[in-house]
Here is the input.
Amino acid sequence: MFMDKKDLKKIRGELASVIEDNINPQFEIVHKRFEDVNKRFEDVNKRFEDVNKHFGRIEATMVTKSYLDEKLADLSGDLVVKLKKEDAKLSRLVDILKRKKVLDKNEVKELAEYQIFPRFAR
Here is the structure.
């Protein structure tokens, strides 16, 4: 009971029909789902690239802590220099007014309290 070529041809035809009707549509569905997933990944990737560009711009314009610390230290130093000059001006003016007897000792003492940097007694 062997099959002849005609029987084998029929079996092949039936198998091809079963594959064509049942298996191929399932592969097409899976393929479509993979295409949809791939499209979603492409969208996510594009958004991620946009976010990276945005963060890159933020980082390029962002002030760092070390930069801010340096600038604040410079500002503090500049303020100290300016305040010392103003203190020196006030002391000089008080000395001149004291010498010309425009101010008495109490007024000189009162104005000395406004000095930021202490003066050593002469």
User: Anything to note?
Assistant: Residues 79-122 form one domain.
